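WARN retry 2 of 3 for item q-0093 after timeout on previous attempt; input resubmitted unchanged.
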Amino acid sequence: MTKLKIGISEESPGWKIILQQIGVDFSEISLQSKIDEYNLLIVNELPENERFLNDWLAQNRPVLWEAKSFARWFGIPAKKKKIKFLQMNKSFSDLGIIDFNKNFYYPSTKFVFPVNEQFLFRKANSLIISFSLDDVIIDHASRRKRFFAERKELPSEIVARNSKGKIRRLIERIIQIIHIENDLPFIQKTNYPNRKNVFIFRIDTDFSSEHNARELQKICQKNSIRASWFIDTNSVRMITEIYSKMSDQEIGFHCDRHLVFPDYQRNYENIQQGLEKLHDAGIDASGFVSPFGDWNFQLAKVLGKFQFHYSSEFTLAHDDLPFFPYLKDHFSEVLQIPIHPISVGRLRRSHFSQKEKMHYYQRVILEKIASKEPVILYHHPNQQQFELWSEIFRFTKKMGLQNITMQEFNDWWRKRQDQDIQCSLENEELHFITPEPDNFLQITTKKGWTIIPKIDVSLAQINFQERQRTKGKEKASMRKWNWRDLLYDIVSKRARKRL
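OK item q-0093 returned
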């Protein structure tokens, strides 16, 4: 019997975030751990239990190393090189451009074999990644980036500097490869409830007029879309006459003053003033999204103080799965729900035609479906484009996406976080310690992938689907300086100063 569980030498913040997102069964090895408790070992730091690692390697069991730890354990040289980004190639080309902005460590090829000379090496049954996962994931810097479209002028937004979502997908792919190479099923929690991918429509009201708010609500109702509205509290009339009467929509909080401050006190006062106005109108907001997508440690502390359930800021992460941010010495209790950060307004500034706007969002939706990630798009009512969104809504239904609110996704993700897998494999039979037919798992083998209820099953009885990946079209030129980036940065700074 083989237990399907991943051991890790140190449960560091970055690895914990990624493994929880991927949804695998894992735990940190201890002095009492036994090698038959795991089927894969991750060595991100040299373990206190050196005997465990020696015994593991002696049996040629699979290991995923970080290069610095690999070099230290075997006493071999590793060349350091600063990597801003990689344009992925070979079997990882569908991931496009991945931004790292960190040092990579390349072990001498006298001791290892390059699987992908950019970042991945092999020694026996070990794979070695050249970067420290904690360095890239626990990085809170942001910068302006351009996003791919099939045209010359590209949209841009100020977002997280590192491609955390793609890095998570890269690690997931490597772990999946290790399982398949060792003829083991790769079992993980699904990224959405009930086998069916989700569409979430987020609305940041940003000083919306009464007319535009009503028109957007009509479009949502006409298409049976329950949106998540994050309202600014600048106008008490808008709160009481419009938003408090939206019985079929989720109401969250955006801001009172449309800014995020670098200090705790002003963030606290800004949020407190807005929440008092919402409370007076009978609105209890459990979700928050910040102005301009800005995030910092002081804002995170304030959100925790007011006990928000979740927030969503694309300068912390975008195009990724939810996670609990690490705040220097502890994890936040406020779930971060990343979205796709390009709004209609950004497309308009880059002179997209109506047809190009629709094509852009269709491509994003199809890429999310292919990567099995939730589709979360956002809009501002004053940008109008109501018929465009009606067309987008129809497309999501055509693609079979189920519409839920951000609060519902938060509630489900927290349950997912607590779900326990505890699975073992014996004679091609999967056995769960606690079968739960109402919970679903994704199974990947060399035959393909599928989603099944969490019940005992024979792998031979499963009908697997062929793995599909979209073709990567991003080019390194997207990371070259462009005069439009400077112009947009100037406009963004001026907008903040006026508020």
